[in-house]
Amino acid sequence: MPPSRYGIKEENKSIWVYLEQDEGVFENVALEMLSKGREMADLLEWKVVGLLLGNGVKTLAPEAIARGADEVWVADHTLLENFIIEGHGSVVYDAVMDGKPSVFLLGATPNGRDLAGRLAVRFRTGLNADCTNLHMEPKGDLLISEVSGFGGGVVAMIEMHDHRPQMATVRPGVFELRAADSKRKGEIREILVDLKPEQIKTRVLERVKSGVVDLTRVPALVIGGRGVNGDFETLRKLAGLIGGDIGATRPPVDEGYIERERQIGQTGAVCHPRVAICCGLSGAFHLLVGIDKADVVVSINSDPEAPIFEFSDYYIVGDVNQVLPALIQAVEGRREVQHA
Ligand SMILES: Cc1cc2nc3c(=O)[nH]c(=O)nc-3n(C[C@H](O)[C@H](O)[C@H](O)COP(=O)(O)OP(=O)(O)OC[C@H]3O[C@@H](n4cnc5c(N)ncnc54)[C@H](O)[C@@H]3O)c2cc1C
Description:
Layout: E1 12-18, E2 21-22, E3 25-26, H1 28-44, E4 47-54, H2 61-66, E5 71-76, H3 85-99, E6 101-107, H4 110-123, E7 127-131, E8 133-137, E9 142-149, E10 154-158, E11 166-170, E12 187-190, E13 220-224, H5 233-241, E14 245-248, H6 250-254, E15 275-279, H7 285-288, E16 296-301, E17 314-317, H8 320-339
Parallel strand pairs: 1-4, 1-6, 4-5, 5-12, 6-11, 7-11, 13-14, 13-15, 15-16, 16-17
Antiparallel strand pairs: 2-3, 8-9, 9-10
């Protein structure tokens, strides 16, 4: 591999985080990376720098500081209103070449992945994609990125010795969010954006939202597996009653019963609900990765030997078609008593 655009001798001892936002709201993964970045930087006495792009987004910078950034570099420009790779790619490239961070983290979101892949090629550095954990090796100032492979059967630890920045995309939901501290002090730096309209070849004609909420932070999840036989309406009713949302294992997603964005697990969302109610699913490793951080797991399965029971705090052996309506009735009954 050819040498990177800048090397170890020129790097600044800092961890940069790409602060992805959509319509003025940070993606959770951006704040999660700030939390993890802060933890790693504190060990080495390094700086955490947030890189924020958009139109009218400067007001978001104080929140990034409260969440752990020492500096926020802001590129605020009308041509950065929508994520378009030509514009965002060019501004991020120039900013990183200016700041020369040792580490540069982006979320493993569709936009983060798009940006990271293109930039890694331009920087002539490597990219550790879809990481599930990160830590710093203080001796060599090395970022160690954990990436799961072979369907979760192995976890690879990847280091980058000679190329800079050490780039990684981070899977949403894998890091805890640190509480915001509004008293934290930090510096906000404005980036002079030199973009011309003719550089942006793509035009956004319409924005269509999928309507699926971010499942990584919902307080209650009702998850349906193959055993619910495509009936997600009953699950939706229970989820509504307990202030949560629905998710699914891979088979109902593959069979087209439910949107792919609702898949939980290794190749889906990694969630942190207070309660996860697992209905008609066996409890494969690939699914468990997605609910490993749930406070309480409840499961319903007709097979008394179902592996999910081993992972559950409470379980019911029975047919979901009978247990779920009874559960819904019980929750509704409790609510009526509370409201009486
Ligand atoms: C690389 C890779 C990545 C993967 N990523 C994911 C992922 O992100 N998420 C994911 O979910 N899977 C993933 N998978 C697939 C995973 O390995 C399992 O195949 C899948 O999770 C099984 O889904 P399930 O539990 O719904 O189905 P099954 O394993 O078929 O289990 C169905 C369960 O329903 C029960 N059941 C049937 N009827 C009823 C009823 N009427 N009432 C009550 N219980 C009933 C059965 O007893 C059974 O336990 C991945 C696989 C690979 C190879």
